[in-house]
Every structure is written in structure tokens, then in C-alpha cells.
Design goal:
Elements: E1 5-6, H1 33-38, E2 53-59, E3 65-71, H2 73-76, E4 81-85, E5 95-96, E6 103-104, E7 110-111, E8 117-123, H3 126-135, E9 137-142, H4 149-153, E10 177-185, H5 188-194, E11 197-205, E12 217-222, E13 228-232, H6 237-248, E14 255-259, H7 275-285, E15 289-292, H8 295-301, E16 308-316, E17 322-332, H9 340-349, E18 359-367, H10 382-400, H11 404-411, H12 431-440, E19 474-487, E20 496-506, E21 509-515, H13 525-537, E22 541-544, H14 562-589, E23 602-605, E24 608-611, E25 616-619, H15 620-624, E26 629-636, E27 655-668, E28 673-684, H16 691-710, E29 744-747, H17 764-781, E30 787-788, H18 792-795
Parallel strand pairs: 2-15, 11-30, 13-14, 17-18, 21-22, 28-29
Antiparallel strand pairs: 1-29, 2-8, 3-7, 3-9, 4-8, 5-6, 10-18, 11-16, 12-13, 12-15, 16-17, 19-27, 20-21, 20-26, 23-24, 24-25, 27-28
Helix pairs in contact: 6-7, 9-10, 10-17, 11-12, 13-14, 16-17
Length: 798
């Protein structure tokens, strides 16, 4: 097995002598890194145009209401206002959506969630636009609320989307269910009869926000050809364009998108937010229009993680063999579908975790409701399931009197295992080894809180700088968890990515230009793509073209897919460029050296054509001359297939990734305060293209999972389905004072089906970090803790 890398000993950033690194497997620095840490990086909210207008959105104060009338005259009469638009002013298609076109650009006859857009305004100053929006008079009539499964599926439930005609409608038992996916394998009833231990519990996961720091923003500029140029922070330029063009009534080639600086995403920028509104106002006024949400509006302007209710039953034999799992997962999708169907597919197919279980009866559904719309967030359905199945593994182990890590290892899948969907796991699945590694890491030293003598650093105590305790009732706990996440788009989706590579001579030196539509949202693709180009083309100078829709789609920056897919596209296109270089070299030097007759034994290195033995037989700059090579190619992973809608069987995923965590916490059991002391991780990444970036991804995902475990939740009022905490004052995310030491073990066990053998990295650590932290809190307190985030009142008797 490959040796692991650790966060404490990253690969150096320079070679001996100071020459910059920059090929695959080395920790090349980010080209945007210095600009970001010095505050000089230009984000989409920094966009500016000389004669631009400002756009503002009027949003509904109700979660479910009929719109009886809208009077825009007072707003239009305000000096400085150029346009006010409602649903009646839309020029073409009125709805959009990622998978189901069910979301109105502007609400027409009713609103379905608190904060839904009703009207938009363009004015010459942002304050004027806000004042104008406040002058729009809307008459509402409140309607009954749908807030959970009971109200959604009741016989008299209001139908939120009557007359549905999407591809899922025929396969759900009620129109207010977005999608349903069962997974059935084996005979659960017979297995239950043989079980020595049965554990049944129900779990809940709260609604988490992606909490990116850069709010939704963009600039739409009308063009002379009647089209529009949109500069936008997004995760998928081409799917934005494909939703926008019908709404604007324009052909796709007249809707041009260019990526602007993205201040984080984590799934929330997959859906449209202000894109259509900015473009509509720009085309209506003939002027550039900029829209920037403030933090309050951002909480209403994007989807969130699905809150979930998960009912699980596990059965096992006395020797610790899992016999069966039965579960039902209910995800609240909110007012519109977004990516809920795909989230359901993930939750159902990954519902039992990385374990071998012969008998499975699982079901996942997503509801339409009047709660805030939910969709993609890092982990995408697998996070909710992982919290439940890992809590179950601890509970079953306790019933059997087994060590929780040993119990997991006894049932851990490995290469050659079969998923409950019937899919063969045909690449390394080192689940037991990952658990062994995190358990073997040195424990953080014990701290003698509350004893006489010595100063106490309150920053290290539960409660931190609030200075609420000096450690009198602090107890330590340790917990473990492991998760499984799919990589890439699944269920038969035509998942591809495109890259264009131009190789030419500039100033006597070969230079490569890499052009993709990949959205750089912080994941590090801007580094990875240059590393791949340097590796494959043997050139030192590599430039990145700005991401836009003038090149073919790169797909979404989500599903841990960009290094695999767009990195794969860059590699594939570079290989085509290299073939053309060698073809030209043979035409020029073919009789000069016998090695030209064996192109598979030639490579490009340091601007030269060299043999396997390192002999130089050609100069790249000389071969290219004045004729650049400019090629565009698509890359696809091996095909997947949809899950059967009755049994859930099918090879629905292209790749799986695995991560394990060990959490060490200290809990003040009198006050209910938690301090996460350490959160160690071990993850198989197949191949670390950029080791330092890989460690950063694992630590970042771990921090988001920690947030879900102990603090992050959008609170929605039960009586009005209204968001109660839309601010970073009331919606809490981990800060540097909450983030613990994070040792990381990185395994590199190649997946032979992937470029360089790599695996997607970014999502897997978000799964297992949450249940590991909660398991540690359970160990410290003895409380069952079946809901996240864990709050102080869950840990005390008050």
C-alpha cells in the first residue's frame, strides 16, 4: 500500500536551487493565491462599467400566498429609475430550472417561499433602486402552508406544482413529492429473522447554508448584435446560458458568459440567482446592469442543503456481521426542484455507507414544500445519509460490545465488493485501512482543566473567549466515522468536459494556452490545469485563458469532478497536441533519427522531443515555427446508467471516494459547550495532482462538516416557514478559533479508469467529519444525539 502524505509535511514548493515546481504530483502555488490573501483579487462584486445601472429585487414577505395585484407606478415615478419589471413584462419563457423547469423568473399568480422574487428594478444608484423596490405595492392573500411530509401528502394538501409533466411525475405517489428512489437487494425479512441484534432509530439533519463569503453578483452588458454579455460568479457557465437563452428570447450564441471572480460556491451557485434579472434589465434599458446581493438577501438568493429525516434499522449477528439495513430518507426540497432528483439518487444509492450488506431495503424521497428551496451542497445527499448510518454503526457496536472501529472494519467493503445497487466496486476501496490509519495517529495530549495552579487559556476551552468556564466540568470524548461518496455526474448523465490547447512559439520559446469553461471556485483547477499541460507538453510557460462560453462546456464545478473531468480533458487535448507535434517532427526529421519511427517511445520535455532514454532528437520551437497548433477536444468518463425506479439496481456511479475521521472533543457537560480539539482524516485520493491543494480540500471539507455537527443551521419558523437567521450574526460558521488541529493522511491508490489514477477529493471529508464529531460528543456525554447540529440544550437537562 502506498505511503500516506501528512499535512504537517507537505511537498516543498520549490526545487533545489529555487526553480519553480509545476508538474503533476508537485505542490505548485496557486496563480491567484497572492492576490487573494492580499485583498487584490477582483471578485464579481468588484465589476464596474462607466454608465451602468444598479438592479434590485423585490421579494415576497410570505412563504405561500396568492398575488392579487402589483402596482409598479410609484416606483416608476421615482427619479433615477429606468425600469421596473414583473412577470407580465417577461419577453419569452417564464420558468427555468436545473432538472425541472418549475421555477418562475418572477412570481406570477403566487409565491411559494419566503423571499421569492416578485419584481426587479433598475436605477442609476443602488439606494434609488432599493427605494423604488420598496414603493412597489403588492397585494397578497396568504395560503395554507406545506412544511413537512404530513402536510405535503395529506389528502387535502395544496398542490405546489399542479399539472406536473416532468420525467419524474409518473413515478411518485403524490405530486408534492419531487422524486422517489428505492434500492432493494436480497431479503430483509428473512435476514431480520436471523439477526441477534436489531437497532432502530430516527435521525434529523438541519438545513445547512453554503455560507460562501462572496455574495451573488454579476454585470450584464447589452451588445450591439442584440445579445448580452454576462460577467458572473457561477459554477457552470454553459448550463446558466442554456437556462437564460429561452428566458431572454435569444439564441444561445447571443448569450455570452464570462466567469468573474468567485468567492466560494459549495453547490449554491449551480442554480440561477440574479443572472436572468440582470440580463432582462440590461436588455430592457439598453444599459449595463449590475446586481450585488447583500448578506441578508444572499440567504434568500440561493439553495441550501436539504434538511432530512432518516429512519434506520440495522440487524447484525452476535459475531458482528451486518445482515441487513432498512431505511427511509425524507429530504425537504423546498419550493422548487433544483437538483433534488439527483440528491435523492445519491442519498438512496449511498444510504448504507461503505459496508458489505447483502440485504437492503432503502428508499429516499424529496418533497416540495413552502420552505426555502434546497439543492446542491458539498456532499449532495450523501452527507445526510452518512450521519445516520454512522450513528447506527456506533449503536450496533455498543449493543454487541464491540469496538466501533473494529465493527466497521469487519463489515468494510473493499475492491470487488458489490454495492446495494448491484454495481461492482472495481477500484481500490481501502475503508478498513483508512480507519486503521486515523485510529493509529497519536492522540492530542490530555489537558487538566479545573485543577489548582497554572493559568488557563480560555481560548482552548469549550465556549472559548466567552469565558464561561474554566474547565470544572469538561469531559473528553473520541469518535470515529467513515463515508462513501460518488464522483462525477451519475445515472446515465452525459458527463463530459472540453479543453482547447494552443501551442505556439513566443519570443523563441514554446508557450501553451489552456482554454476551458471550468469555473474556478477555490478548488484549485487553475493550478491543476497548468500542471497537466506542463507535464504532457514539456513546456514551462503555460497561460490560462479566462473561462467563458466561447469554448465547449466544462460541466459544473461540483460532484468532485473537475480535476477528473476537465483535468482529463486538458490531458486528452494535450495528448492530441503532442501527436501533432510528433507528426510534424517526423515530417521534418523523420530520416534523421530512427526513434522518430516509434512515436509511442517519444515524449516532450523541457521544450524538446526526447526518447525514453532521454536523448534529445528535436526542438519544439523549431518544429512549431510560425504555425501554432490549436486543438479542442472533449473528454468523457466511462458510461453510467439510470437506477431502476422499482429496485434501484444499476451501475449508476462512475467512481467512489472514501474518507475516515477521528474526532477528539472536550465538552462542558454542565453548560453544554463543545470544543473540537482535533479532527484527523485519512483519505484515498488515487493520485495527488497537487498535494498541498489536496490537503487543503480535505481540511476545508472537514471544517464544513464540523460546522454542521455543532453550529450551522438555517432556522425556519414552524408557523410561517420564514427564515429567522439570515445573517452571519445569527447563522454561525466555524472561525479560526473553532477550527481544530487537522492531521491528514493521504493515500494514493490509483483508480485505473481515471486520468493519472486520481479520485475526486473535495466532498468525501464533508461526509464523515460530522458523524465523527457527534460520536465524540456522545462518548463524552453518554447522550444519544440523533439530530445535528448539536446544541447546548441537547447536552444538558435544562
Amino acid at each position: 500500500m502506498a505511503a500516506g502524505r501528512t499535512a504537517s509535511a507537505p511537498t516543498p514548493l520549490t526545487r533545489t536551487g529555487g526553480a519553480p515546481r509545476g508538474v503533476v504530483g508537485e505542490s505548485a502555488p496557486r496563480p491567484d493565491g497572492t492576490l487573494k490573501v492580499t485583498g487584490e483579487f477582483a471578485y464579481s462584486s468588484d465589476l464596474w462599467h462607466e454608465d451602468m445601472l444598479w438592479g434590485v429585487t423585490l421579494r415576497s414577505p410570505y412563504a405561500h400566498a396568492a398575488i392579487r395585484s402589483i402596482d409598479t407606478a410609484p416606483a416608476l415615478a421615482l427619479p433615477g429609475v429606468y425600469a421596473v419589471m414583473t412577470h407580465a413584462d417577461l419577453p419569452a419563457e417564464t420558468h427555468y430550472g436545473l432538472e425541472i423547469r418549475d421555477q418562475p423568473v418572477l412570481a406570477k399568480d403566487r409565491v411559494r417561499y419566503h423571499g421569492e422574487p416578485v419584481a426587479i428594478v433598475a436605477a442609476d444608484h443602488p439606494e434609488t433602486a432599493r427605494r423604488a423596490a420598496a414603493l412597489i405595492a403588492v397585494e397578497y392573500e396568504e395560503l395554507p402552508l406545506v412544511v413537512d411530509e404530513a402536510t405535503a401528502t395529506a389528502p387535502d394538501a395544496p398542490l405546489l406544482h399542479p399539472g406536473r409533466r416532468d420525467r419524474h411525475a409518473a413515478h411518485v405517489p403524490h405530486p408534492n413529492i419531487v422524486h422517489r428512489q428505492p434500492v432493494r437487494r436480497g431479503d430483509v425479512a428473512a435476514a431480520r429473522a436471523r439477526a441477534d441484534v436489531v437497532v432502530r432509530r430516527t435521525y434529523e439533519v438541519g438545513m445547512q447554508d453554503q455560507a460562501f463569503l462572496g455574495p451573488e453578483s454579476g454585470l450584464a452588458v447589452p451588445a450591439e448584435d442584440g445579445g448580452v454579455d454576462l460577467y458572473i460568479a457561477t459554477q457552470w457557465l454553459h448550463v446558466d446560458r442554456d437556462q437564460l437563452a429561452p428566458v431572454l428570447g435569444l439564441p444561445a450564441d447571443k448569450v455570452r458568459l464570462t466567469l468573474s471572480g468567485v468567492g466560494g460556491a459549495f453547490g449554491a451557485r449551480e442554480d440561477l440567482s440574479m443572472q436572468a434579472h440582470a440580463c432582462l434589465l440590461a436588455l430592457r434599458t439598453g444599459k449595463p446592469v449590475k446586481i450585488v446581493y447583500n448578506r441578508y438577501e444572499s440567504f434568500f438568493g440561493h439553495v441550501h442543503r436539504h434538511p432530512a429525516k432518516l429512519s434506520y434499522e440495522h440487524g447484525a449477528t452476535r459475531d458482528g456481521t451486518l445482515l441487513y439495513v432498512q431505511c427511509r430518507i425524507v429530504l425537504d426540497g423546498g419550493a422548487y426542484a433544483s437538483s433534488s432528483p439527483a440528491v435523492v439518487g445519491n442519498a438512496a444509492s449511498l444510504s448504507i455507507g461503505p459496508y458489505v450488506v447483502e440485504n437492503v431495503d432503502a428508499e429516499a424521497i424529496a418533497l416540495y414544500s413552502n420552505n426555502p428551496p434546497c439543492g446542491a451542497m458539498r456532499g449532495f445527499g450523501a452527507v445526510q445519509a452518512c450521519f445516520a448510518y454512522e450513528a447506527q454503526m456506533d449503536a450496533v457496536a455498543a449493543e454487541l460490545g464491540l469496538d466501533p472501529v473494529e465493527f466497521r472494519q469487519r463489515n468494510a467493503m473493499s475492491q470487488g465488493a458489490t454495492m446495494p445497487t448491484g454495481q461492482l466496486v472495481d477500484s481500490p476501496a481501502p475503508v478498513a485501512e483508512l480507519l486503521r490509519r486515523v485510529k493509529a495517529l497519536p492522540m492530542p495530549p490530555e489537558r487538566a482543566w479545573g485543577t489548582a495552579g497554572g493559568a488557563v487559556d480560555v481560548r482552548a476551552l469549550p465556549g472559548g473567549l466567552s469565558n464561561t468556564t474554566h474547565g470544572e466540568a469538561v469531559v473528553r470524548g473520541v469518535g470515529y466515522a467513515v463515508g462513501i461518496k460518488n464522483v462525477g455526474f451519475s445515472e446515465g448523465f452525459d458527463d463530459y468536459s472540453t479543453a482547447r490547447i494552443r501551442l505556439e512559439v513566443i519570443g523563441g520559446e514554446p508557450v501553451a494556452l489552456v482554454h476551458t469553461a471550468m469555473a474556478e471556485v477555490g478548488q484549485g483547477g487553475v493550478t491543476v490545469h497548468t500542471q497537466i499541460a506542463r507535464t504532457e507538453l514539456g513546456v514551462g510557460r503555460v497561460t490560462l485563458h479566462p473561462a467563458d462560453t466561447r469554448v465547449g462546456s466544462a460541466g459544473s464545478t461540483s460532484a468532485s469532478r473537475q480535476t477528473y473531468m476537465t483535468g482529463g480533458a486538458v490531458k486528452h487535448t494535450c495528448e492530441a497536441v503532442r501527436e501533432e507535434v510528433l507528426r510534424r517532427g517526423r515530417a521534418r526529421h523523420g530520416t534523421g533519427h530512427p526513434a522518430w519511427a516509434a512515436p509511442d517511445r517519444l515524449r516532450l520535455a523541457d521544450g524538446k522531443v526526447v526518447t525514453d532514454g532521454g536523448e534529445v532528437i528535436g526542438d519544439l520551437a523549431e518544429i512549431l515555427g510560425d504555425e501554432p497548433i490549436d486543438l479542442e477536444r472533449e473528454f468523457r468518463h466511462r458510461p453510467t446508467e439510470p437506477f431502476d425506479l422499482r429496485t434501484g439496481q444499476g451501475s449508476g456511479h462512475v467512481q467512489y471516494s472514501f474518507c475516515a475521521h477521528r474526532a477528539v472533543v472536550e465538552v462542558d457537560t454542565e453548560l453544554g459547550l463543545v470544543k473540537v480539539v482535533e479532527l484527523a482524516a485519512a483519505q484515498d485520493v488515487g493520485k495527488a495532482i497537487n498535494p498541498l491543494s489536496v490537503v487543503g480540500q480535505i481540511q476545508g471539507g472537514s471544517a464544513q462538516g464540523l460546522g454542521l455537527a455543532v453550529m450551522e443551521e438555517i432556522v425556519v419558523s414552524a408557523d410561517g416557514a420564514k427564515v429567522r437567521n439570515p445573517s452571519f450574526t445569527d447563522y454561525l460558521i466555524p472561525t479560526v478559533l473553532d477550527t481544530p488541529t487537522m492531521p491528514v493522511e493521504v493515500l494514493e491508490l490509483a483508480d485505473d479508469h481515471a486520468p493519472y489514477g486520481l479520485r475526486g477529493v473535495g466532498e468525501a471529508p464533508t461526509l464523515s467529519s460530522t458523524p465523527a464529531v457527534v460520536a465524540a460528543i456522545r462518548a463524552a456525554t453518554g447522550r444519544p444525539l440523533k439530530r445535528v447540529p448539536v446544541r447546548p440544550e441537547h447536552l444538558t437537562d435544562t
